[in-house]
Specification:
Largest sheet: 8 strands, parallel, barrel
Number of strands: 10
Order of helices and strands: HEHHEHHEEEHEHEHEHEHEHHH
Radius of gyration: 19 Å
Mean pLDDT: 98
CATH class: Alpha Beta
Low-confidence stretches: none
Structural class: alpha/beta
CATH superfamily: Aldolase class I
CATH topology: TIM Barrel
Distance between the termini: 36 Å
Shape: globular
Strand order of the largest sheet: 1-2-3-6-7-8-9-10
Bound molecules: 1,3-dihydroxyacetonephosphate
CATH architecture: Alpha-Beta Barrel
Strand content: 5-15%
Length: 336
């Protein structure tokens, strides 16, 4: 498959992406929450549970993996990527090295990982990865985001994306404006719009082929601690309006991150956007927490709970898939 075909397959009708690429530090936090030690084996068991859930390929087109998982074998000795491919799921890989303090800024972050990236991408392609992810983090509050931080992150995102396409790997470009803070939805709108303008400006300058990438943005939402929370319809209309101002129609798909929204809320927002009619881009998902939270809570690190955790994961995947098609409603939660 060429890169256009892979991008199209990732945003095929009824399907979206599972982000299971938590770094070793982040997965430890998730496993701590269910009082399970984070070891190579427990991380493998958890990812194996997700990837081997029966028929999950009906809802999940691709999975973003962490370096360790891409190289890891299941309990029966098969590679975890083979489990995915058997379910017609495309393996992807997180290639950034995390967000670090940006020099001469007031606490803002820039994502690292460009050094040696060309060589790493070649190896990842050999290991079966056909798409990649790089996450930039933009925060709101106290004068942030600065144009300096936005530009530094946009530049790195474009350098990453160009290197991916050179290696025949579809880049997912992820500039995440964080929900943390008490800012209004309009402040989130402004930060998201400025960020996306800078990102597409850099992608253009660095010759990235828009047809061969996907955008993974935040939704335009109220800050987590904002006393006046915007409703579902306002989130959907402001988010789509923001993209209409910033995202070229040559981009095949927009796959949202969930960003700490509860599972059900992320599903409602995605559904509302898909109910607003056809857009120039496919509107789909690349959720981490909003696909995994229930499964993790049910699993509790116990082999006896694997089937129930898989059922919880499949339920969430089915409901998110319905929302991707604009066919979700709240009654489906009760009947799930
Ligand atoms: P969340 O959906 O939990 O935000 O994770 C998606 C992701 O990949 C963040 O980089």
């Amino acid at each position: 498959m060429d890169m256009e075909d892979i991008a199209a397959a990732l945003v095929a009708p009824s399907k979206g992406i599972l982000a299971a690429d938590e770094s070793t530090g982040t997965i430890k936090k998730r496993l701590d929450s269910i009082k399970t030690a984070s070891t190579k084996e427990s991380r493998r068991d958890y990812r194996e549970l997700l990837f081997s859930a029966k028929d999950v390929g009906d809802y999940i087109s691709g999975v973003i993996l962490y370096d360790e998982t891409l190289r890891q074998a299941a309990k029966d000795g098969r590679q975890l990527t083979t489990l995915l491919e058997d379910q017609h799921i495309i393996p992807g890989i997180k290639v950034d090295m995390g967000a670090k303090p940006l020099a001469f800024s007031d606490g803002e972050l820039v994502t690292e990982g460009l050094d040696g990236l060309r060589e790493r991408l070649a190896e990842y392609h050999d290991l079966g990865a056909r798409f990649a992810k790089w996450r930039a983090v933009i925060s709101i509050g106290d004068g942030a985001p600065s144009q300096y931080c936005i530009d530094a992150n946009a530049h790195a995102l474009a350098r990453y994306a160009a290197l991916c396409q050179e290696a025949n790997i579809v880049p997912i470009v992820e500039p995440e404006v964080l929900m943390d803070g008490d800012h209004s939805i309009d402040e989130c709108y402004a930060a998201t719009e400025t960020t996306l303008k800078a990102v597409f400006d850099e992608l253009y300058k660095q010759r990235v082929v828009l047809e061969q990438m996907l955008l993974k943005p935040n939704m335009v939402v109220s800050g987590k601690d904002c006393p006046e929370q915007a409703g579902v319809d306002e989130v959907a209309s402001k988010t789509l309006y923001c993209f209409s101002q910033t995202v070229p129609t040559a981009v095949p798909g927009i796959v949202f991150l969930s960003g700490g929204q509860p599972e059900r809320q992320a599903t409602e927002h995605l559904n509302a956007m898909n109910q607003l009619g056809r857009q120039p881009w496919e509107i789909s998902y690349s959720f981490g927490r909003a696909l995994q939270a229930s499964a993790l809570a049910v699993w509790q690190g116990k082999p006896a709970n694997v089937e129930a955790a898989q059922a919880a994961f499949l339920t969430r995947a089915r409901l998110t898939s319905a929302a991707r098609d604009g066919e979700y409603n709240a009654d489906m939660e009760a009947n799930a």
